[in-house]
Design a protein that fits this description.
BUG; about 325 residues; Bug_dom1; 6-stranded mixed β-sheet; alpha/beta
């Protein structure tokens, strides 16, 4: 009789757990964005959250937690319950770069988060002032080798992916450039267009419109393939700088330990959104590549980039501001 009661209790518990998972979600979901309202991440997250809300039948509320290059938002999510009601819109900078730059971030990217899907990526590009004498990557390399350490390039600050693309460029081309860190990418790009500095490595979607209007010139794309929006620009490999690949990505994650049925539901709904032509069109027109992945594929990319970024930062002795 005792064994029967134990079995019955176990079945009852299993049924209750299954019912709870089947009912998920039964309350609003919070999507934490590590940028202030109006930023690039916010602009992607808001329509995505709206589409996800329609599919899940519950509000998906954006919560902007800016600061410390995303560490504040990531640390917050890392302390939330593992129930799928808090989603983190993470990036390569926060999850694969920051842990190698800060003494304490408040989270472990490989232990605290369950990846759901990659959402979008944008390659970095080498962009120069429109009046610059540099017409090709070969021109930059030749000038840098002729006068090491004299050619300035801007970035959004020490340790960001723009800076690291420059570090990688130096390593792969055998050159020495002069890094000029700014407080944000827009400030650096403004100085490139104004002629205060000759060039920088920046996200394609941030400079595409300026290239089309003739204010800057994009010399190469730091990707293994050419950009659909700018097919005339060669890859770094085609331009003679093989190995210079830097494609910053973003993706959706939840706390490690979130029930598998919840992970699977989120994965299914998110991937469907990301494959919808209407959702993709506006983002891709601006130079952002919308993509999707399985949780396992995202986890592998995070792990690989965490290792490669760490090695690059260590080899170049990169320090934050």
């Amino acid at each position: 009789m005792t064994q029967f009661r134990k079995a019955a209790a176990a079945l009852s518990c299993l049924a209750a757990t299954s019912l709870a998972h089947a009912a998920w979600p039964d309350k609003p979901i919070v999507m934490v964005v590590p940028q202030p309202p109006g930023g690039a991440a916010d602009a992607f997250a808001r329509p995505f959250a709206q589409a996800l809300s329609q599919r899940l039948g519950q509000p998906v509320v954006i919560e902007n937690r800016a600061g410390a290059n995303g560490n504040i938002a990531a640390a917050y999510v890392a302390k939330q319950p593992a129930d799928g009601y808090t989603i983190f819109f993470g990036s390569v900078s926060t999850l694969a770069v920051n842990p190698h730059l800060y003494k304490s971030t408040g989270f472990d990217p490989l232990k605290d988060f369950q990846p759901i899907t990659l959402t979008n990526q944008t390659p970095n590009v080498l962009v120069v002032n429109a009046a610059s004498p540099y017409k090709t990557v070969a021109d930059v390399v030749a000038a840098a080798k002729a006068a090491p350490g004299t050619i300035n390039y801007g970035s959004a600050g020490n340790g960001n992916t723009m800076h690291l693309t420059g570090v990688l460029f130096e390593q792969k081309t055998g050159t020495t450039l002069a890094h000029v860190p700014y407080k944000g990418g827009p400030a650096a790009l403004t100085d490139v267009m104004g002629g205060q500095i000759p060039m920088m490595f920046h996200n394609l979607n941030a400079v595409l419109a300026y290239e089309k209007s003739g204010k800057v010139r994009i010399l190469a794309v730091a990707d293994n393939k050419r950009a659909t929006q700018l097919p005339g620009a060669p890859t770094m490999k085609e331009a003679g700088a093989a190995g210079v690949v830097q494609v910053p990505w973003s993706g959706m994650l939840v706390r490690t330990g979130t029930p598998q049925p919840v992970v699977e539901r989120l994965s299914k709904e998110m991937v469907e959104i990301l494959k919808t032509p209407a959702f993709r069109a506006s983002h891709e027109a601006m130079g952002t590549e919308v993509l999707s992945s399985t949780p396992a594929e995202f986890a592998e990319r995070l792990k690989a980039d965490y290792a490669s970024m760490g090695a690059l930062i260590k080899a170049a002795n990169v320090k934050i501001d």
